[in-house]
Amino acid sequence: MKLNQLKLFVMIAEEGQIGLAAVRAGMTQPALTKSVNSLERALGSRLFQRTRNGVQLTQAGALLLARARGIVCSADEAKRELEELATGAIGRLRVGAGPSMAEYLLPQVIGELLPTYPRIELKVTSALNDVLFESLRAGDVDIVVSGIPETAPLDFEQELLMHDQQVVVARADHPLVGRQRVPLRELVEQSWVLPPPGVLARRWLNNQFEMRSLPAPHAAVEADSNVAIISIVANTHLITFQPRSNLATLGAHKGLSEVRGAELRWRRPIGVTWRKGSYLPQVAQRFTASLRATAARLSAPEVR
Known about the structure:
Elements: H1 3-15, H2 18-25, H3 29-43, E1 48-51, E2 54-57, H4 59-87, E3 92-97, H5 99-104, H6 106-116, E4 121-126, H7 129-138, E5 143-147, E6 156-171, H8 184-188, E7 191-194, H9 200-211, E8 218-222, H10 226-234, E9 240-243, H11 244-249, E10 256-258, E11 265-275, H12 282-298
Parallel strand pairs: 3-4, 3-5, 7-8
Antiparallel strand pairs: 1-2, 5-11, 6-9, 6-10, 6-11
């Protein structure tokens, strides 16, 4: 079993088609098929079964995929570490950032970091935290700056940086805006624009209703982009659940307001997350130090 065979195996599993994986790998389909067949013979197990739309993992393939991704990530990290040791480079850093962090926190961190370390190379990917955490597991990003769960998953390490507040948001002319009190039961009757179910904010929101024996909010629209969510709320009478900081950045020119009387406020923990036991380049240490300093400054007083 060779490292390159594992890399090609992971590509096929992610693409779901031999042809697409071959294009991604820059090789012919017969050569890729030969590599997979060789790996299957070495392991004594069939890894894929053909379907009408491509290939899918067998039980043995699914088991191997979980291990193979870790092996490939470790090998790539070792290569990066050796390159940095040989060249003395500060390094490259791939950062995953939640939308509000990409708009609010990261620009300040990058602005402080680049003058001191002008040769740092940063690649920033913005997405909701469910997508970011999967990218982290796959080794596509080195660290994630976003909302974090109260307890880190077993394969992650996380550090709390600050808190922000997530609140109910609606268009300024919505009947709920300006009310002194909006009970949770009344929010059940509203239609919402919400992120996918795996996002931390959506899970927290559903849990608040469940704890009070109320049905979960009705998501008339589900979107994986905060920009899209804000725009939809601005053009409808739907409501949503967003960080207060988004009102100042994304929502200020859209005529949106916080529903201040709503019985829903989440003091959301914001932190940095990385894979447990993974190699972090030198730039990650400097970047994280700058994150801490910026978050401490923004938290005094607490972000509103």
